[in-house]
């Protein structure tokens, strides 16, 4: 604002603000944001599956693994109710598949539907390295199907 030092009527203080530069700057910023936002936000178009909890149909030869974290932070893997190490898990899985192939009379007589599956139940607090290690071990042993067992949401709760 300009303040006049004299006592004349034309020299009164100016109370108008020139907003033209402010509007110009705001329009330039708006144009910059409109151009850069689509370049920054890049997403891959996906249609995510609608999760429905189907009851698990299990065969007696399927392997049930439970994985949790020990208090010291290491992984604990259970084959059924028996705790196993990584090496024992690989040996048991390999032996199980070998037994099923021998019982069928050779690998040529089996399809993927005839082979057992590995069902993994992982605790929420379990680090991914524990579950990922068990998946890798089961696939290394020859299990073609490895799945996860989850707990359905409580009835009456929000559904996705």
Can you describe what's shown?
The protein has 160 residues and is an alpha/beta fold. The protein is 34% helix and 14% strand. The chain contains 3 helices and 5 strands, in the order H-E-E-E-H-E-H-E. Strand 4, helix 3 (128-141) and strand 5 (146-148) form a beta-alpha-beta unit. It is elongated. It starts with 19 loop residues before the first helix and ends in a 12-residue tail after the last strand.
Summarize the structure.
The protein is α/β, with parallel strands linked by helices. The protein is built from 3 helices and 5 strands, in the order H-E-E-E-H-E-H-E.
Topology summary:
Blueprint lengths: L19 H21 L22 E7 L5 E5 L2 E3 L1 H19 L13 E5 L5 H14 L4 E3 L12
Q: Which regions contain 5 or more consecutive residues with pLDDT less than 50?
A: none
CA-atom Rg in angstroms: 33 Å
Q: Give the termini distance in whole angstroms.
A: 59 Å
Strand order in the sheet with the most strands = 3-2-1-4-5
Q: What helical percentage do the residues reach?
A: 25-40%
Structural class: alpha/beta
